[in-house]
């Protein structure tokens, strides 16, 4: 919650899902009657609001995912200012073979694709478990993701949908790498083994 002394209005943030009546960020009067609710339109699902601040006709919103958004009070337009991973470390980082794009994989269970020129998030997917490494295929059309429990996933870059997955080890995958012809995948695990897969 945040209040301003100038007009006494209170802004709140929560984790409720957006409805027809509004979203998780709300503006209230001094009698706690709701004045307005704001949808956070980011193109990505917003998990929940952790902090809010208000001033000069704008509301700053901090989310559980480490994102900071700015919402205009008059037009309700939202603009994402900062994106980020949440809890744990970022273990995987790989550059696209031909574009100014990179991918990161983290303990927060997400894989995120970043535009390096504009310094913004392009896409993200939640995997449900900590991700430990990542690699682009040589043609940039596929991603390999190594997980903490020994599984690896193959994702199509355009949609971030799962193309395939396999688990032959019970320890964390520490490195994944495509062959130059995109035909094979090498998977290195914490037990010192390297497995090769014919894709």
From TrEMBL:
Domain EML-like second beta-propeller: 90-198
SMART domains the UniProt entry points to: WD40 (SM00320)
UniProt KW Repeat keyword: yes
Keywords associated with the record: Repeat, WD repeat
InterPro entries for this protein: Beta-prop_EML-like_2nd, WD40/YVTN_repeat-like_dom_sf, WD40_repeat_CS, WD40_repeat_dom_sf, WD40_rpt, WD_repeat_EMAP
GO CC entries: cilium
PANTHER family, sorted: HELP DOMAIN-CONTAINING PROTEIN, WD-40 REPEAT PROTEIN
Protein name per UniProt: EML-like second beta-propeller domain-containing protein
Organism listed in the record: Tetraodon nigroviridis (Spotted green pufferfish)
């Amino acid at each position: 919650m945040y209040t301003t002394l100038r007009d006494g209005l209170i802004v709140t943030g929560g984790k409720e899902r957006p409805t027809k009546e509004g979203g998780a960020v709300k503006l209230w009067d001094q009698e706690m009657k709701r004045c307005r609710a704001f949808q956070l339109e980011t193109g990505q699902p917003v998990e929940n609001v952790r902090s809010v601040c208000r001033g000069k006709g704008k509301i700053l919103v901090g989310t559980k995912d480490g994102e900071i958004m700015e919402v205009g009070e008059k037009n309700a337009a939202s603009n994402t200012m900062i994106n980020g991973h949440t809890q744990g470390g970022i273990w995987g980082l790989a550059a696209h073979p031909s574009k100014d794009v990179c991918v990161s994989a983290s303990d927060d269970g997400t894989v995120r694709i970043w535009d390096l020129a504009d310094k913004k998030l392009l896409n993200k997917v939640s995997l449900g478990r900590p991700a430990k490494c990542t690699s682009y295929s040589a043609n940039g059309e596929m991603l390999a993701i190594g997980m903490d429990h020994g599984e690896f996933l193959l994702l199509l870059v355009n949609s971030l949908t799962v193309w395939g997955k396999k688990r032959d080890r019970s320890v964390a995958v520490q490195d994944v790498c495509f062959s130059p012809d995109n035909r094979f995948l090498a998977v290195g695990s914490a037990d010192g083994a390297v497995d090769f897969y014919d894709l």
